[in-house]
Specification:
Elements: E1 4-8, E2 12-15, H1 23-33, E3 36-39, H2 50-61, E4 71-77, H3 84-93, E5 96-101, H4 121-130, E6 134-136, H5 150-165, E7 171-173, H6 179-187, E8 192-196, H7 198-202, H8 205-209, H9 226-236, E9 243-245, H10 254-257, H11 272-282, H12 289-294, H13 296-301, E10 309-317, E11 323-325, E12 329-331, E13 340-344
């Protein structure tokens, strides 16, 4: 068994950088781990059009470490007011690479999201025409639906009809959490892919709830049963190019995570590569890791694969308990106080 491997420099096809002062922390962390990142648009206020995206891009640029060629790939936040003209303008910008769909109210800063997809079909048709992918937080927003069933409900009620109506629309079903999502992606055409997070590959709902609630494992979509985790890890390590990295790394201050708010999100920007390596090693699939981290996402987005590399070594290490964040706050990383078995050299 090799104790070292050199792989294509990874990208992250789903990350939250937040905005303003948060960027001082999140951008250097992301740049340390990834060459390119798809930046989520659920800032406050959200990124709704080309002008918003360009302004946000400029704010991010100010915090990229000197000498780094880190590249933020911008997205728009889909709202009921999004038009085909907004889509065309965004595509023409050259910096907007996708549009994000949040069902209203399903996660952090999603109140501006959409309640019904049918009225937006002209927008989706324009996205298919210009080649702008739709990134979907795939959960039903009806609060009466059991939280563990919301992904399946969304797939059945919204996603399957959308894919059938506009099969040329490229779709990424993000941070999938169920065997149902895996089955949908496998059964769809080649325009449909999915991202998988480290937490959903490594943990199940027992990890979150047994022996006391673990606030730093609370994310949305929520961790599911072990049968679902097994389906996810099998998909991730299968070598199928439909499945690729998307950490969903989401910074929340420790005081917000460990409060009655219980903010949803795991912060993995600096530990995700180690987590993915461990997950793949458990499945005896380290030979599939490079493509998952560095090839399939770029291929799906129609971008060139990175030419630079990183080296992973089998070496026990423990992430810091926390990182400084904002004013007098801290970020607790995924894997804090745990021994991780792979380290980026």
């Amino acid at each position: 068994m090799s104790n070292q491997m050199t792989i294509t420099f990874p990208d992250d096809w789903h990350i939250h950088l937040r905005d303003n002062d948060a960027l001082k922390t999140t951008v250097p962390h992301a740049a340390q781990s990834f060459k390119r990142v798809i930046v989520m648009p659920n800032t406050t206020p959200p990124v709704k059009n080309r002008q918003d995206a360009e302004a946000y891009y400029a704010r991010i640029q100010k915090h990229i470490p000197e000498g780094s060629d880190f590249q933020p790939l911008m997205t728009l936040y889909l709202t009921p007011d999004t038009t085909p003209e907004i889509i065309e303008d965004a595509k023409a910008s050259g910096i907007v690479h996708a549009v994000k769909l949040y069902p209203a109210g399903v996660t952090t800063n999603s109140t501006a999201g959409v309640s019904s997809l049918k009225n937006l079909y002209p927008v989706f048709e324009k996205m298919a025409e210009v080649g702008l992918p739709l990134l979907i937080h795939g959960e039903a927003s009806d609060p009466e639906i059991d939280i563990f069933d919301r992904e399946l409900t969304f797939i059945e009620q919204e996603l399957k009809p959308l894919h059938a109506a506009i099969p040329t629309l490229r779709i990424v079903l993000e941070h999938i959490t169920t065997k149902d999502a895996v089955e949908f992606v496998l059964g769809a055409n080649d325009n449909v892919g999915a991202t998988l997070t480290p937490q959903h590959l490594l943990f199940n709902r027992n990890s979150l709830l047994s022996g006391g609630i673990k606030p730093h494992l609370y994310c949305l979509p929520i961790l599911k049963r072990e049968i679902h985790r097994q389906a996810l890890i099998k998909a991730a390590t299968s070598g199928n190019p439909k499945f690729f990295i998307g950490t969903d790394s989401a910074p929340h201050a420790q005081s917000a995570k460990e409060s009655s708010c219980g903010c949803a999100g795991c912060y993995s920007a600096l530990t995700a590569i180690s987590h993915y390596a461990e997950a793949f090693e458990r499945m005896n699939a380290l030979d599939k890791l490079e493509a998952f981290l560095g090839h399939y996402g770029a291929d799906f987005y129609g971008l060139p694969r990175n030419t630079e590399t990183i080296t992973l070594v089998r070496e026990d290490w423990t992430p810091p308990d926390s990182y400084p964040y904002l004013e007098n706050e801290h970020l607790i990383p995924l894997g804090a106080k745990q021994v991780l078995k792979w380290k980026v050299k």
